[in-house]
Amino acid sequence: MLLDKSNMLESIRNFPGQFEKSLKFAAGVRVEGRIDKVVVAGMGGSAFPGDILKAYLAGTNISVEVCRGYSITTMIDENTLVFISSFSGNTEETISALYNAMEKKAKIVIVTAGGRLEELSRKHNLPIAKIVKEFPTFQPRAATGYFIGIFIGVLSNSGVISDKKTDLIEVGNFLAKCEFEEEAKQLAKQLVDRIPIVYAHDFYEKSLAMIVKIKFNENSKVQAFYNSFPELNHNEMVGFTLIKGNYHFIILDDPAGHERIKKRIQIFSNYMRQKDLPVSIIPMQGDTVLGKIFSTIYFFEFVSYYLALEYGIDPTPVDMVEDFKRALE
């Protein structure tokens, strides 16, 4: 029986090509004037690329915040660039955030594949970077390379950052050389009937550990949780005094990370293994922040995909999300 009815595997294998394509989607899209802050307003797979952008621009003079909700709660003004980010273009929270950004006179760029947001971009004469779907059932959560490429492309076009477009090309070329499928299949087999708990160094908590956790939720249709070192050593790990679940720890380790965090990882792993809980330490690959983040995401796209197949389910549909939206109508 064919489980992958929408051929998600093809979209995963094509992921490295998103970075170069994204620059075409961003071509000619720019804003004028001073920009002190960048806000990404979106939900789900249209929001977490904002967390990656925040990590990528860490240490620069550009502040990046991510808004997941109906209104933009951070202070914004005419010197703020707000990316209104919704793959479908119909996300109600994001449409609400658009009106909020307009009221506060922020600079706005819409990033979408169509829908209501495309209509609003025309109505209000707002710049838009339009993503072209690879095929009708292509999922927003699979478009991370498109979103981050558009964000960086627009910021480069607008002179907010120096031209970083070569960084995107290099990431795509790097991922194209990565061969992850067989290793991913093996880890997926180990995760059957386990609850994945994903930990990372603190710098990569939202920009990676949370995203990997989401891949298990949406692709594999299982519960999964995330946190980061060193914070978890001050609270969460105490919760494993009494084991109430069949857990498997996945620790995303940055080879260039803080030595004390590396020691914490080793000690924590030993503690959990003494409790007969499996621990998989996954070294992040690559020499740059984007390389490390996207190579790890790419690997776990395969892991979560093959875990879905192990459970005998189609990885593409998110029926509960769609049912919930209908219940809201």
From TrEMBL:
InterPro entries per the record?
A: Glu6P/Mann6P_isomerase_C, SIS_dom, SIS_dom_sf, SIS_PGI/PMI_1
Biological process GO annotation list?
Answer: carbohydrate derivative metabolic process; carbohydrate metabolic process
Q: Which Pfam families match?
A: bact-PGI_C, SIS
Asked if the record carries the keyword Isomerase, the reply is yes
Give the keywords, sorted. Isomerase
Gene Ontology molecular function terms on file: carbohydrate derivative binding; glucose-6-phosphate isomerase activity; mannose-6-phosphate isomerase activity
Q: Does the keyword Transmembrane apply?
A: no
- Give the SIS domain ranges: 26-165
The record ties this protein, via PROSITE patterns, to: SIS
Q: Which CDD domains match?
A: SIS_PGI_PMI_1, SIS_PGI_PMI_2
Gene3D superfamilies annotated for this entry? Answer: Glucose-6-phosphate isomerase like protein, domain 1
Q: Which family does it belong to?
A: Belongs to the PGI/PMI family.
Name of the protein this chain belongs to: Bifunctional phosphoglucose/phosphomannose isomerase
Source organism of this protein record = Candidatus Desantisbacteria bacterium CG2_30_40_21
